[in-house]
């Protein structure tokens, strides 16, 4: 699966990607930042994840291709170290609702905020 279209919607703060299997996903910048595949966010193994807080207003300032398999997203909070493979983006698209619900639950349990 490869992207056929990548659209950065600055006004609605979303990234939209269409794939050659006729799927199309759209993610808020905040969601992409919170679920960055970087070691800074995911840690180096199970249980080492770092809960991301205060990302409600994060902006996506750049999208750079990485070979033919991924993109690098550059956020205005300085985060730019995750490579979003096409496969990972498909997973984010398929499981977005559940992942977001789990994130909000973890955030509340930690007494933290999106702001």
SSE inventory with pairings:
Layout: E1 3-9, E2 14-19, E3 24-28, H1 29-34, H2 39-42, E4 60-66, E5 70-75, E6 83-85, H3 86-94, H4 96-109
Antiparallel strand pairs: 1-2, 2-3, 4-5, 5-6
What does this 3D model show about the protein?
By secondary structure, this protein is α+β, with helices and mostly antiparallel strands. The protein has one domain (3-109): 2-Layer Sandwich (NE0471 N-terminal domain-like), CATH 3.30.2020. Helices cover 29% and strands 30% of the residues. The protein is built from 4 helices and 6 strands. It has a 3-stranded antiparallel sheet with strand order 1-2-3. The chain has a 3-stranded antiparallel sheet with strand order 4-5-6. The radius of gyration is 14 Å and the shape is globular. The model has no long low-confidence stretch (mean pLDDT 96).
List keywords for this structure.
NE0471 N-terminal domain-like; alpha+beta; 4 helices; 30% strand; three-stranded antiparallel sheet; 115 residues; single chain
